[in-house]
Specification:
5-stranded parallel beta sheet; 2 domains; about 230 residues; 7 strands; Rossmann fold; Arc Repressor Mutant, subunit A
Length: about 230
């Protein structure tokens, strides 16, 4: 009797990335790609209908946040194991993703075998992180670093960091409200809290700092962090 293949759902808003992952994973004898989704709404529907064993999720999605999607999938299907597959800097997002409910974080630019190994690891009940990120988390744990001792964007909540990135990308309050499905007053409240945490005096400085941070962040993770 043949062993049952692991069912995998791919969530990424870039068609070329989805196509590449489908091609890669379909070549693996133990994997079956049961669907692909560009955004959160389709992903949640497919999780309900197709019950994947593993869901690969990007941090940035066209219709919302990958971190939010991870939380929602965890509530919807406790058996699904979520692996972040993104260009976003793991030193910024990996710990947040794990707190949200993911069990691994892999960079899209890693070797194809690394992505396959990451999926195999999470299917086996292990957590997958790069060696560098593993060491960083151990260091944070052993030094007892807490949120109150964090600096810069580390002090921001997940939602605040999402909004900070969108501000850095030049998005208006109205656009942020529509993208994240929250009220404009809520966006303004997050702006105020971010200014307090970052020691910024006005919205212009917040936007300038966010733009600078986003540019540095993009350089650190490759030619583009939009994926």
């Amino acid at each position: 009797m043949r062993a049952r293949k692991a069912r995998i759902l791919i969530v990424d808003d870039h068609p070329i990335v989805r196509e590449g992952l489908v091609a890669l994973l379909s070549r693996q004898p133990d994997f079956e790609v049961v669907g692909e989704a560009a955004g959160a709404a389709d992903a949640l529907r497919m999780v309900k209908e197709r019950h994947p064993n593993v869901v690969t999720v990007d941090i940035a999605l066209a219709d919302g946040s990958g971190l939010d999607l991870i939380r929602r999938i965890a509530e919807l299907d406790s058996e699904a194991r979520m692996l972040v597959c993104s260009l976003h800097d793991e030193s910024v997002y990996a710990e947040r993703a794990l707190r949200a409910g993911a069990v691994g974080y892999v960079n899209k630019q890693d070797a194809t075998q690394t992505i396959v190994q990451a999926i195999q690891d999470v299917l086996s009940g292990r957590t997958y992180l790069s060696e560098g990120m593993h060491q960083l988390l151990v260091q944070r744990f052993t030094t007892g670093r807490k949120k109150s001792n964090a600096t810069g964007v580390e002090r921001l909540s997940d939602r605040e960091l999402e909004i900070y990135e969108l501000i850095g990308a030049g998005r208006t309050t109205t656009e942020i409200s529509q993208l994240l499905h929250i009220g404009e007053k809520t966006v303004d409240t997050h702006r105020r809290r971010m200014k307090e945490k970052l020691g910024v005096v006005n919205n212009s400085q917040l936007a300038s700092d966010a733009t600078r941070w986003l540019m540095e962040h993009q350089k650190s993770c490759g030619s583009s962090c939009q994926g």
